[in-house]
Design a protein that fits this description.
With 232 residues, the protein is mainly beta. It has strands at 159-162, 169-174, 180-186, 191-196, 200-202, 209-217, 223-230.
Length: 232
């Protein structure tokens, strides 16, 4: 007789003819989920992410270790059930919650600056690289202040400062003051230049940037304070 496999009978009376363990891995069909592959049986260790039930135990996780319903091919973090394509993106947490890098997290206005540096992450025209527009009440470059330019009277002194921005010579007109000083101070509080009774100030030796200018009546101590932008 021809041996009929998996019937538990030695049909051909030849014990060497395989009946219940065709791959000869020591496990009969009743326990072996793939009796044609010796590397798949209950004695094997499960190899994760290979798409095969190596140990013949469907409860041993293979492609979805965090059991969130998404296999590794779709799940960008298979060790965290709260991160998968079914999640809603939580902005500003630094995590790709929905496994979609195109869903914005830390740079909603797509200006290249995350919220930690961007003072308005809903406006791409406001970021540390933006050009400050004077006198509009908006801090375009996120330095904490709006640039003010003026040739008008600066109370309590009658002072005109121009041009502003400046790249060569700065003119300071002070009316009805006998002696006055002009100080240019960095935003960090460092005195950059100080002149007495000088209406013309050469700024070519000063690095480009935003500075504070203080005009002081030496006799009364009254001051006029403004901001100037020195250009290259």
């Amino acid at each position: 007789q021809m041996e009929i496999v998996y019937n538990g009978i030695d049909d051909d009376c030849d014990p060497e003819t395989l009946d219940d363990d065709l791959d000869q891995d020591g496990f009969n069909l009743v326990d072996d989920c793939d009796d044609e592959n010796t590397d798949i049986n209950p004695g094997q260790m499960e190899i994760v992410y290979n798409g095969i039930d190596d140990d013949c135990n469907p409860e041993t996780l293979d492609d979805d270790l965090d059991q969130d319903g998404f296999n590794l091919v779709d799940d960008c973090d298979d060790e965290n059930a709260d991160i998968n394509p079914g999640q809603m993106e939580i902005v500003y947490n630094g995590i790709d919650d929905d496994c979609d890098p195109e869903t914005l997290d830390d740079d909603l206005d797509q200006d290249g600056f995350n919220l930690v540096d961007d003072c308005d992450d809903e406006n791409a025209d406001i970021n540390p690289d933006a050009i400050e527009i004077p006198n509009n009440g908006i801090d375009e470059n996120c330095d904490g202040m709006d640039l003010i330019t003026s040739t008008n009277e600066l109370a309590p002194l009658d002072v005109n400062i121009y041009p502003n921005p400046v790249n060569f010579q700065l003119f300071v007109d002070v009316s009805n003051v006998t002696r006055f000083s002009v100080s240019i101070i960095s935003l960090e509080g460092e005195l950059v230049k100080r002149l007495i009774n000088s209406a013309l100030i050469d700024v070519t030796s000063i690095h480009a940037g935003l500075y504070i200018i203080v005009v002081e009546d030496i006799e009364t101590g009254q001051q006029a304070i403004d901001k100037i932008l020195i250009m290259d």
